[in-house]
Structure formats: C-alpha cells, structure tokens
UniProtKB/TrEMBL annotation:
This is Uncharacterized protein. Residues 1-34 are annotated as: Disordered. It comes from the Eukaryota. It comes from Datura stramonium (Jimsonweed).
Length: 80
C-alpha cells in the first residue's frame, strides 16, 4: 500500500510579523487621517470658518509628511 506524503508548510515568523506590522500601520494611518479630517471639519464649523480652507491646511500637512517619508527612504534611514 502506497502512502502519499503530506506536505508540511512552515510559517516564517519574520514574514508573519511583517504582515502584521503592515496591517497595523495601515490601520493606524487610516484612523489618524479620519480623525484629523473630522477634527478639522468640526473646528471649522464651530469657529464659523470655511471648511475648505481647513481641509487645505490638512492637505498641506499630509504633503509635508509624504515629502519627509520620501526623503528618509531616499537616504535609507531605517528608524531609531
């Protein structure tokens, strides 16, 4: 009687950790962005200021963070 060999797949702990880190980072980024947008709109409404101008300021902050991220990737910084 011939037995078929079962294939065992091993989980790479480093790969699993990287996947979890990516998911956590995406979740943190989306929650930070949505709370920034809602705070910006809420502040503009309470202050009777134009909501569009408050959103433009928020866009400027995102642009600054994107430039900073790009420059750190360009020089190869890996964190603290």
């Amino acid at each position: 009687m011939k037995r078929e060999r079962e294939e065992i797949t091993l989980i790479n702990p480093k790969e699993e950790e990287e996947t979890a880190t990516r998911k956590l980072r995406a979740s943190a980024e989306s929650s930070a962005s949505s709370s920034s947008i809602s705070t910006s709109v809420f502040g503009a409404v309470l202050g009777k200021a134009p909501v569009l101008k408050s959103q433009l300021g928020l866009f400027g902050g995102w642009l600054a963070m994107a430039i900073t991220y790009g420059l750190t990737k360009l020089i190869g910084s890996s964190g603290l």
